[in-house]
Amino acid sequence: MSATILFTIISLSAIGATAAIILYFVAQKFKVYEDPRIDQVDEILPAANCGGCGYPGCRGFAEAMVKADDLSPFYCPVGGNETMAQVAEVLGKAVEAKDPQVAVVRCSGSPTHRERINSYDGASSCAISSSLYSGETGCQFGCLGLGDCVDVCDFDAIYIDKETGLPVVVDDNCTACGACVKACPNVIIELRKKNKKDRKIFVSCVNHDKGGVAKKACKVACIGCSKCVKVCPYDAITMDNFCAFIDANKCKLCRKCATECPTNAILEINFPPKKVKPANPAEGKETPKAESKETNNNEINKKEG
Amino acid sequence: MLKTFPKGGVHPAEGKYSANSAIEVLPLPKQVSIPIAQHIGAPSKPLVAKGDKVKVGDKIAESTGFVSANIHSSVSGTVVKVDNILDSTGYKRPCVIIGVEGDEWNESIDRSTGLKKEISLTDKEIINKINESGIVGLGGATFPSHVKLSIPDDKKIDVLIINGVECEPYLTSDHRLMIEKAEEMLVGIQILMKALGVNLALIGIENNKPDAIEHIKKLVKDYPGIEVHALKVQYPQGGEKQLIKALINREVPSGGLPLDVGAVVHNVGTAFAVYEAVQKNKPLFERVVTLTGKSVKKPSNFMVRIGTPTSDLIEAAGGLPEDTGKVINGGPMMGKALNSLDVPIVKGASGILIMPVELSQRKKEVNCIRCAKCVSVCAQGLEPYLLNRLAQLEKNDKLETDGVMDCIECGSCAYICPAGLPLLDYIRLGKSRVSQIIRSRKQ
């Protein structure tokens, strides 16, 4: 009996040892060299696999960065500058800090502003709806409200507001991976520079129709009047085909355009209420700019009223 | 045993209410909006500007490539403007808007009503004439006809197939044309045969139009080489791949064209337009449009000038019924709901269908139960439930290998689905994504 057990153990061990030796040589022969730095970089990356960097997953991104000589075209929107600095340290390459970005939804066409003129009962997808027709409202550029952007977001950073039917970005969760930008068939969502305290000024409209047509379809549409272009002291606003656009890199958040806009298409978000601004009315008199005086006076009047 | 295609197919309620209404000429509208993109391919380039005077049949937009078509004025009057107008695509597109003044035709058009049988032009001249007259496939796909007639040197064509199937429920414009303009259509077929250099033309007509079949069978004796075949009623027999299979039992290969099996398919409406263009020098500026629906007071077939607002047709047929749910451009299977009644009639509009509320609503979506009804009705032998899921998950490479590009978008799968899934919507989405990928690969 014990001989059988002994024989089994010995023969199995012999087979195992032979196989191990063969496998060792095979592994040596077919060894694929992988840069150990890929693993190191992969460790640092956030492992969200969102594709915001433009590569298939974090591992693909790590491989590309290890191979590249220059890190300037690479950026991990989820990890941000901190992660990129760590990656640069591991790879011994230089990296420039980039401005963090956040997604903004450039449409304010809630049902109160933008009348529904027909009803869509097809598949609940913006991509399908936009392939069929221009949507439930008179505006063929605006938000369709079926939530393709919500479906693609990996970070719970966007949701559809039930009252307005429009997507809302949660700034704290948004990593600016750009998935929603790609998913939106009407290209309403834009990645913009993130300012201090999440302050934002942007034209919340992408309607390229002429003023009258745009206004008829939506009360808060950009009508292309160019008032904002004229008032902007920093040349940050351009008018393209009856729709204004504020360049976030030039904008200094002075808010003059928002005050000027006749349709309230320019939104100012997370700013303190304007009443606080003219702290000292005496100072206001000394400033040479006529416009600021006016605003100040208005504010004071409002205060008194 | 009547011929038909072997795989799949459905038979929806026919509802051909307007089958016995003779074609009426619709009174001229006050204003027409003629879109400059009415065909598959490159949009045309407008030749007129605000204030220009035009006559009926004047060229107002020029073809901008091989796959493109000329567009002619359908009325006489003054160009009001060239502007973006909501058209049947559901988007605002550039249109030439003409205010109607009188009805003055271009002098070169032969307005006599007599039948002209002798074909004096050569094959090249015929194709040029068809190109010049802006003729596109009038079955609904609006593919420029001269492209279909220009056969590459390495291909050999032996049969012309004429599509008189009209498998879409409700629509009767081709049916009426086959009864009232049969002789002209037959001469048109002979012209097409001459252009292609073939000696055989087969007309396929579904068996629910016995009067048309009988009428053409009687006339066809004087036209050598043309045969009429009655087909079993089965949707989507009007698809060219299905019609070729049904009539001559040849199968168009995946990704191929009818050319690859030696056939060219044209619609009966196109044959009639070809007759008018070649024999009467009349460009394509009017067509037969069916205006029908369950609650429509007077289901009719109208001869309509291109660019006439849809509302004019509805008015002429007794007004918009109260229980209207959707107004559909085309048939109930492949047509598309309009989002405005001012949408102009275009070359591809074979019918306007007014659906009551109870027939126009989609079924409530529930889960797929893998009953495979969609698989059994697919005339192209695809698996719609699978393509639907793959499109939702954006698995584009798998979609391509599973043959999404072979889908003819007939909608049989969505029609039969007991779970009410929007199968075709997602397949179409997948198809457009895959075709984009294929295009970018070629570049």
How big is the Rg of chain B? 21 Å
**Total beta strand runs of chain A:** 8
Q: Whole-number average pLDDT of chain A?
A: 86
What oligomeric arrangement do these chains adopt? heterodimer
Major β-sheet strand ordering of chain A: 1-4
What is the CATH class of the largest domain in chain A? Alpha Beta
**Secondary structure category of chain B:** alpha/beta
Helix tally of chain A? Answer: 12
At CATH level 2, the architecture of the largest domain in chain A is 2-Layer Sandwich
Uncertain regions of chain A: pLDDT < 50 for 5+ in a row? 281-305
The chain pair with the largest interface is: A-B, 14 and 16 residues
Topology order of chain A in helix (H) and strand (E) letters: HHHHEHHEEHEEHHEEHEHH
Q: What is the count of DSSP helices of chain B, taking H or I runs of 4+ residues?
A: 14
Query: How many structural domains in the coordinates of chain A?
Result: 3
Largest sheet of chain B: 6 strands, mixed
Strand order of the largest sheet of chain B: 1-14-13-17-15-16
Please give the number of β-strands of chain B: 17
Kindly state the percentage of residues in helix of chain A.
25-40%
Task: Find the CATH superfamily of the domain at 123-280 in chain B.
Answer: NADH-ubiquinone oxidoreductase 51kDa subunit
Task: Please summarize what this structure is.
The complex is a heterodimer of chains A (305) and B (443). Chain A is an alpha+beta fold and 305 residues long.
Task: Considering the chains and any ligands shown, give keywords for the structure.
heterodimer; A: 305 residues; alpha+beta; 3-methyladenine DNA Glycosylase II, Chain A, domain 3; Alpha-Beta Plaits; two-stranded antiparallel ribbon; B: Rossmann fold; six-stranded mixed β-sheet; four-stranded antiparallel β-sheet; 17 strands
Give structural notes.
The complex is a heterodimer of chains A (305) and B (443). With 305 residues, chain A is an alpha+beta fold. Chain A is 38% helix and 10% strand. Chain A is built from 12 helices and 8 strands. Chain A has a two-stranded antiparallel sheet. A two-stranded antiparallel ribbon of chain A has the order 2-3. Chain A has a two-stranded antiparallel sheet with strand order 5-8. The longest helix of chain A is centred in the N-terminal third of the chain and has 28 residues, at 2-29. The radius of gyration of chain A is 29 Å and the shape is elongated. With 443 residues, chain B is an alpha/beta fold. Among the domains of chain B are: 123-280, 3-Layer(aba) Sandwich (Rossmann fold); 373-442, no CATH class. Helices cover 28% and strands 20% of the residues of chain B. In chain B, the strands form 4 sheets. In chain B, strands 1-14-13-17-15-16 form a 6-stranded mixed beta sheet. Chain B has a 4-stranded antiparallel beta sheet with strand order 2-8-7-4, with no helix packed on it. In chain B, strands 11-10-9-12 form a 4-stranded parallel beta sheet, with helices on both faces. The A-B interface holds A 117-118, 121-123, 125, 127-128, 131-134, 140, 209 and B 86, 89-92, 336-337, 339, 361-362, 422, 425-426, 428-429, 432.
